Amino acid sequence: MIPPVFALLSWPVVVSLICRGRSLQVAILVTILGGYLFLPERHAIDLPALYELNKISIPAYTALALALIAISRASNTGRGGPQTPDPSTAQWLDGWVPRLRLPLVLIGLTMVGAVMTVVTNRDPVIELNIYNWPRGIVGENIFIPGLRLQDAGASILVVMVNLIPLLLARRFFAHPEGQKILLAGFCIGGLLYVPLAMFEARMSPQLNQWTYGFFAHLWSQHVRGDGFRPIVFLSHGLLVALFMSTALIISVGLARVHTGRLRGRFLMAAGMLFIGLVITKSLGALVIALFLCPILLFAPRWVLLSLTAGIVSIALLYPVVRGTSIIPLDTVVTLAGSVNEERAASFAYRLNFEEQLLARAQERPFFGWGSWGRNLYLGNGEFAVPDGEWTLLLSQSGWFGFIGRFGLMFLPVILLLWRWRKDGIGMETAVIAAALTAAAIDLIPNSGMTPDKWLLAGALWGRLELGRITATANEEVPDPPALRLRPGYARPAPAAVARDKTEPTAPAGPRYTRQAKRITRGTTAPTTKLYRR
Asked: Domains of the chain: which residue ranges?
């Protein structure tokens, strides 16, 4: 059994050992995505200057430190590092601040909202002599303290920790080749989770208990029928289901991007991920994947981008039209009841709290009620049980927080539709947009703006910025240099072999080696060595 605090503190050392000699892009993926998938929940180290060190902040700080180290080594050629990037590549690699105005405005809204939420919520919430009828309590008092000015620094640090994966992905996963590495990382992460989820679905969710000594959520919510809903190392089984759904969508998209053997391998990976998604026993995540995967395989790119932009627009406008009769929620509840009465009752329970939290948020619409449970108190001693991420953001941070965070995560999906033809948006970028669309659908009934989603959003912002720079320079931006943590450990590529123009060539690969020998036998051209792929 591993102590949770030890696992958190040792994560930078583990990452440095795993990623020794590998590219910086791989190191960032292992640090952030691996930390999200395998580090323990519900444990943190509270430090005055760094907010708290948990499974979100430690991988973010570690990835940022690795990026700064790799960049400093790349710029210092005297230490044997890689050559300094050429100017055409450095013009989009250099700089941590986005060049587009829209993400800067959204970051500003988020920062200002974090400070103003503290400033406008310094008053305590007090309610005396409550008669709480369901519990039969008379004379109960409620006191929730107001926020302190020093809490503004902690709020800004929370925002910065969430933005570190976005800024790193914007800088290092903007190029199409980098985005393929990002998508492959999600596929590998999902495949690693498949056997763990299969074990817990059959034997009960025990991996976190055996590894770290505690269970991360309520046991009753992870019992489904004759089996169990796997939770692995995340905070809830629904997050496992959404990640498996995202990995399945990405694997199908990679099968569309690649050809030949790689396409077959990604389709096989998609089959394994589909099995893993089914055993998570989440109908919503399964429906999302079954809806988006056929479109990824067969629809033209403009159809895919149009559909993703439309769905994300509906998700962003959902809080605005939630209180109107535009969305037929009563009809949805009736349809859910015809399928499963238990699920219909759960859905109606969520809608009830959504309406109450929306009314609570309208009392302080711009900056919300803040934390410490102030946003969840409904009066008369009753606290709401939030589900959707939008209800949490509106009630806690107001419209400033909602527009800032949801805009940073989902607006690039809409912008891709406007600029895909002009900027030459490839299929790998459209796959990232489809994965973020799945997250936008899931965040309406559920919560969880996790680091994996920020990585995808940052890659889209970087691709949009890359297209703008390419159009301005009127030339194609080359691939970025392969920054490595330890350049000396990189495997050297095989030396290039000069070919004569008159030499008959054969396709590369082991199956064509014998055919190549027969072709070159009896010719005057020198025999060349064919390397295995």
From this structure: 4-175+299-473, 496-533
